[in-house]
């Protein structure tokens, strides 16, 4: 399954639309590691005149030599090992896609490369038909590279932050797993294509989790540390913040206290984690309750919840993960899956409309999913359980009470609802 390209239709259409314009473009494709940026770029250049180059962290004179060799092979003629010469030759090639994968490696090696790229764009590419696709994993460095005051400020003609796959695509990786097992897989790795491809369909879920997360040679055992160390100088400070949020701290003061971080420096750390897509600041869709912080990245959430506390025992070979340990975690995963599947449910006709959607809370009241569109209201209560029709009706009545019996659509999301239920219902199978 690792070599199979899944979904990304919206992203491909975006790139194709820009490509069809025929004019020069500098497009930035970025997102966390393992999210599928390289595969998307390679899919996009299929059947097109193109040059693909993967940057590495080394002296830029050596990088210029590598790039010149790649371009020389593509053009069938010698190109001098100089950035300006390389791009001036590419500018003569008509409509060609040039992919520089992990271009921020160059920026980390020598920030002056931004000035070189500015000059290359202004003098050669801006008057050409070259489609320059810059791919990057370091979100904070991408932000700095194109911010006001940077040499590349104002040159970018498009950008796309590549996110996770929708929850429904988990089934494409593990078609023989039960729907409940797919929820557990999503709770372990979210919709990150590379991580999903690591699960062996011939193994049980518990065997896969232990092999990937809880053995010293497991691919996902140290991946979390590598993921944060790749972009951050203080990875364990960030881990402590993520863990504090996962354990229930939601306000600045609570997070700072639990993570042992100064309240004055915490906003800087949270900003970086938000840019990376690790945490998110959640505001209620209705009312004036204060926003809270939540962990958005399921892989890191699972890692800080289960792997980090047990690392000593894993190192000794004295720990084995049991699926029962996830029982209190799966209701949270299911609720998040529902919120991330709303567009899919609407497209399928399961939901009547979407509008602005999110959670709602006010004092002691909480609604799992609330969507507003003008005067229209759609409210859903999410239950990680099988319900009979009577329990579903009681749930809807309670939901109506929470919202003051406001007119609208009220429904229940559950694993399964047995018996005749006349209200709006969403079952686990609908998510896939």
Tell me briefly what this model is.
The protein has 432 residues and is α/β, with parallel strands linked by helices. 43% of the residues lie in helices and 18% in strands. It has helices at residues 9-20, 37-45, 60-75, 83-90, 104-109, 113-123, 139-145, 170-173, 179-189, 193-197, 205-213, 223-231, 235-246, 252-259, 266-276, 298-307, 311-315, 330-340, 342-347, 389-402, and strands at residues 25-30, 50-54, 96-101, 130-136, 158-161, 279-282, 292-295, 356-362, 365-373, 376-388, 409-418, 424-427.
Question: Care to describe what's here?
Answer:
The chain is of the alpha/beta class and 432 residues long. The chain folds into 3 domains: 9-161, P-loop containing nucleotide triphosphate hydrolases (Rossmann fold), CATH 3.40.50.300; 167-334, Arc Repressor Mutant, subunit A (Orthogonal Bundle); 341-431, Trna Endonuclease, Chain: A, domain 1, CATH 3.40.1350. Helices cover 43% and strands 18% of the residues. Helix 20 (389-402) links the parallel strand 10 and strand 11. The radius of gyration is 24 Å and the shape is globular.
Tell me the layout of helices and strands:
Elements: H1 9-20, E1 25-30, H2 37-45, E2 50-54, H3 60-75, H4 83-90, E3 96-101, H5 104-109, H6 113-123, E4 130-136, H7 139-145, E5 158-161, H8 170-173, H9 179-189, H10 193-197, H11 205-213, H12 223-231, H13 235-246, H14 252-259, H15 266-276, E6 279-282, E7 292-295, H16 298-307, H17 311-315, H18 330-340, H19 342-347, E8 356-362, E9 365-373, E10 376-388, H20 389-402, E11 409-418, E12 424-427
Parallel strand pairs: 1-4, 1-5, 2-3, 3-4, 10-11, 11-12
Antiparallel strand pairs: 6-7, 8-9, 9-10
């Amino acid at each position: 399954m690792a070599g199979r390209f899944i979904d990304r239709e919206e992203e491909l259409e975006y790139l194709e639309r820009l490509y069809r314009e025929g004019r020069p473009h500098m497009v930035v494709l970025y997102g966390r590691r393992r999210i599928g940026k390289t595969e998307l770029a390679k899919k996009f250049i299929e059947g097109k005149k193109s040059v693909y180059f993967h940057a590495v962290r080394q002296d830029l004179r050596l990088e210029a030599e590598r790039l010149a060799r790649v371009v020389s092979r593509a053009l069938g003629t010698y190109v001098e090992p100089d950035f300006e010469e390389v791009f001036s030759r590419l500018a003569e090639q008509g409509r060609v896609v040039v992919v520089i994968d992990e271009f921020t490696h160059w920026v980390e090696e020598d920030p002056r490369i931004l000035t070189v790229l500015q000059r290359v764009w202004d003098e050669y590419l801006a008057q050409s038909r070259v489609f320059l696709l810059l791919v990057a994993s370091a979100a904070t460095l991408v932000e700095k590279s194109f911010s006001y005051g940077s040499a590349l400020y104002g040159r970018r003609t498009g950008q796309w932050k590549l996110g996770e796959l929708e929850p429904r695509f988990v089934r494409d990786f593990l078609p023989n797993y039960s729907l409940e097992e797919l929820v557990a897989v999503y709770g372990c790795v979210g919709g990150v294509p590379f991580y999903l491809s690591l699960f062996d369909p011939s193994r049980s879920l518990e065997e896969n989790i232990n092999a990937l997360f809880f053995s010293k040679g497991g691919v996902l055992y140290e991946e979390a540390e590598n993921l944060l160390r790749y972009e951050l100088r203080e990875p364990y400070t960030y881990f402590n913040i993520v863990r504090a949020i996962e354990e229930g701290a939601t306000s600045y003061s609570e997070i700072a206290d639990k993570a042992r971080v100064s309240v004055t420096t915490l906003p800087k750390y949270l900003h970086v984690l938000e840019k990376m897509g690790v945490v998110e600041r959640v505001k209620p869709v209705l009312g004036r309750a204060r926003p809270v912080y939540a962990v958005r990245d399921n892989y890191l959430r699972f890692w800080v919840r289960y792997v980090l506390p047990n690392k000593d025992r894993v190192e000794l070979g004295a720990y084995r993960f049991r699926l029962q340990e996830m029982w209190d975690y799966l209701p949270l995963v299911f609720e998040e899956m529902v919120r991330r599947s709303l567009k899919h449910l609407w497209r399928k006709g399961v939901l009547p409309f979407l509008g602005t959607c999110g959670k709602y809370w006010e004092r002691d009241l909480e609604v799992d999913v609330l969507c507003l569109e003008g005067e229209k209201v759609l409210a859903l209560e999410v239950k990680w359980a099988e319900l009979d029709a009577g329990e579903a009706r009681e749930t809807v009545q309670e939901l109506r009470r929470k919202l003051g019996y406001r007119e609208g659509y009220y429904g229940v999301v559950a694993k399964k609802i047995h018996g005749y239920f006349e209200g709006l219902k969403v079952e686990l199978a609908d998510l896939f």
